[in-house]
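As practice, study what follows.
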Amino acid sequence: MKNFIVRTITSVFFVATIVVSFLNPLAMVFLFALITGMTIWELVGLVNERPFVQVNRFISTVAGVYFFLAMAGHCSGRVTSDTVFIPYLITIIYLLVAELYLKAKDPINDWAYTMLPQLYVALPFSMINVLAFPAEGEFSFVLPLSVFVFLWLNDAGAYCIGSLLGRHKLFPRISPGKSWEGSIGGALLVVGGAALIWYLLSSYVPEQTNLSLWQWAGQGLTVVVFGTWGDLVESLLKRTLGIKDSGNVLPGHGGMLDRFDSTLLAMPAAVVYLFTLTLL
């Protein structure tokens, strides 16, 4: 019971923080730059516990945060030159070349784990900027926030329906608690949420988006599928590392990877979906 209360309080604070941050572009950029840094720091700390792995935790974290901020400046139109990405590229080159002088037992491991946080964390989080700034100088909270709303609805629906009706395991080798019934229940709740978002936007703030009802439903289902895969990918990562939680920074929820695992695949998938529809 105590753990449930702690999880609930953390969830309410977590949701409120994200929603409020989207009311102001600078607040959004600051919050997710911080989240990017904390998540990379956590991930590098975990992989550095593996045998023969020595990833530079500080430089990897700074590089990932810089990439997020560079994407924010580029997408928002505040930075018009592509040279903003040069320091990031130089940092990645440095991290690779440094292995020549570190005399590590397995430099290939170091190279692989050096790139993992950039591809798995920094790049997906930076896609928030693509959704938040669909046109140069224009900020819109609808598309990036909708991804989180769909993920929350999917989690709620999957948990409730899975607890009541779950019989058939979705992926027992990786996550024994997930069921097909829960996944379907989460997807149905997300489609209903997508329809509600479409109705509210078209009725009260039509200038915020030009997605049709079916396009919103497609966006929701895209988030459901890739968000579920994101959860499973992080579960596989934790099983490989032999840990239960990625950290303890969020009481009752574990670490940053535990909280944002679904986001790391759902966010770039949403960008690809909307680009496919030529809406970005």
